[in-house]
Amino acid sequence: MKKLMVTLLAAVAGLSYAAAVDAQQAPDEETLKVMSFNIRQSGVPEDGANGWNYRKVPCVAMIRDQKPDLIGMQEVLAEQSDYLTERLTEYGKVGLGRDDGKREGEQMSVFYRLDRFELADSGHFWLSETPDEVSRGWDGACNRMCTWIGLKERQSGKTVYLFNTHLDHMGPVARKEGALLLVAKIKAIAGRNMAFLTGDFNANPDDPVLVPLFKKFGSARDKAPVTDRHGTFNGWGNAPSNIILDYIFYQKASPVEFQTITKGYGCPFISDHYPIIATFKW
What is the pLDDT of residue 20? Predict the structure, then answer.
């Protein structure tokens, strides 16, 4: 009898421990974690030891560790998209090349947790005077675009949108007009629903280019009670530590924490930009 009681107690303890581990590892359904990550395109010779082949495993490890619900990535070339999609099987993905609307050029790839969300709608537009077709806008040095998804949470039926973009690095008019177009498009597509805008905006917080975005949306870095002021562009360790180019904007949501992820996950830098992640009340 004594031996049976010991066995039962051990079994109960084992189940309790397993449940605690599962609870610790499982994503929290009471919150929503949104990540923005400029992964740095592959195939850049001068990157040397910082090339994609050295960073791709750490990139996947970082995502698996952080467990974001939604991810907006920038500078994703087709080979990088293929690699990430094959390995991050717990996520759905939408994205296409900005230079042909297929596989050529950088993607504004968006990822979403398949176990939590159902894809209800998606689309793309270019930051230009002709947003519905592959095009280059104003004084931009490159074709720039935005990819978006509309999701329905499986459990609650709530709707949430994610928009992901990368403003031009050279053209001030392209950045200004691109920001204004983003405001207009998000209003037209997402309406009053919960929505997030992630991206590399190639502008520091005090840049007038960002005024329409700060006016229309909240900034997770600025509004979250727990936050940091760490720079997001590291230049492989050669940039000043206060350059902020990456943002998570939101509407109809309440941020609780914002973090710049500086951990290398096995290499010095997983990109020349640090990923950023914000947690919101769901």
Answer: 40
